[in-house]
Amino acid sequence: MLGWMGKFRALFLLGSLALVLSGCGKENLTALVPKGYGAESSMDLIILTTVIMLFVFAVVMVIYVITLIRFRKKKGQEDYIPKQVEGNQTLETVWTVIPILLLIIIAVPTVLATFDLADETDAKDSININVTGNQYWWHFDYAGEEIQTSQDLYIPVGEKVYLNMLSSDVIHSLWVPSLSGKMDVNPENENTMYIEAYEEGVYWGKCAEFCGPSHSLMDFKIVVVSPEEYETWIADMQNVDPEQEPQDTVALEGQALFEENNCMACHAIGSSPVATGPNLTNFGDRSRLAGIKELTKDNLVDWLQDPETIKPGNKMTGKYPALSDEDADAIAEYLLQLQPSDITPESAGN
Ligand code: HEC
Ligand SMILES: [Cu+2]
């Protein structure tokens, strides 16, 4: 058994741990600062339930402390046996009815919010994006726009954007805590949810369903821009000519090596729906490599030579010839200049 010092220490440790852990998390990656409709309605429910729980806690504690003090065993009354009471209909009714009322107060808004968030009546008139979850990256197909992209999802601020989601392998779950709740992404049966962002900015997303060794590295972003910027971005993406030759000679060589080394079997540049690997049309505009690493040339060369150490279990490892330093360098040069748009996560505030 712990002595009181031990108990104090354990309590102190738990307290500090709670304090330190509560500092975890990034800005724009927290459900507690909602920046979108779904996140806001979850937050309202979190506040409601917390207030009710605190109320119950306070009432129980007050009764507990009063009982503890008033009904202590008193000096000189060691042998005193208090009146033995059994059953009390009024009390029992009260402590049955009150919890029922409290649960109804929680249940009604929860059920209403659930139906509200599942309402898809205006889906046809809204922006629809087909989302595919893959072991360990996300693909976005802009229905009707002939645009394919991966990793970064661009959407306009203040508009409902419907995500129609399927997985190409195992079950994933799409979660952008600042904007909305989670939704499972299954290999069969399309799941739909909508996102409506209130503020421009870059919001971080996570896979919220364990899906393999690199599950925790399956990060992505939602880039929320003004409606005009969104139109510009769409046009920029549509204007990409995948065959266009880069000016730079190293990049030009990289382009040839990209074709020679089987990269195109999995990676499309432009609107081709090939999506065994991430679409690279605007790869140079991304701020992250493979969703997680800072996008620098060094990191990219490391990735091309050995993706396995960066993302264990990824589906690219071993599927193309080993690349020499020069070849990897040239391909990196080529990929980094794929920057079709001025609208990027950086311009959106990341
Ligand atoms: C068998 C299919 C396949 C082949 C072949 C392949 N890749 Fe990949 N590649 C992938 C997959 C899958 C990913 C996503 C890995 C992850 O994040 O889990 C990926 C990721 C990448 C990324 C990061 C993309 C991003 O959005 O950040 C780059 C860059 C890349 N590959 C370049 C190449 C190059 C260059 C080649 C040829 C030398 C190549 N790949 C060959 C499947 C492939
Ligand atoms: Cu996943």
Model description:
With 350 residues, this protein is α+β, with helices and mostly antiparallel strands. The chain has a domain at 249-336: Cupredoxins -  blue copper proteins (Immunoglobulin-like, Sandwich). It is 37% helix and 17% strand. The chain is built from eight helices and twelve strands. The chain has helices at residues 4-21, 37-70, 89-118, 227-238, 249-260, 297-305, 307-310, 325-336, and strands at residues 127-134, 137-142, 147-150, 152-156, 161-167, 172-175, 183-185, 191-195, 201-207, 220-225, 288-289, 293-294. Strands 3-2-1-5-8 form a five-stranded mixed beta sheet. A five-stranded mixed beta sheet has the order 4-10-9-6-7. Strands 11-12 form a two-stranded antiparallel sheet. A hairpin with a 7-residue loop joins β6 (172-175) and β7 (183-185). The radius of gyration is 28 Å and the shape is elongated. The protein starts with a helix and ends in a 14-residue tail after the last helix. Heme C (HEC) is lined by residues 136-137, 150-151, 214, 258, 261-263, 265-267, 276-278, 283, 289-291, 304, 311, 314-316, 319-320, 331, 335.
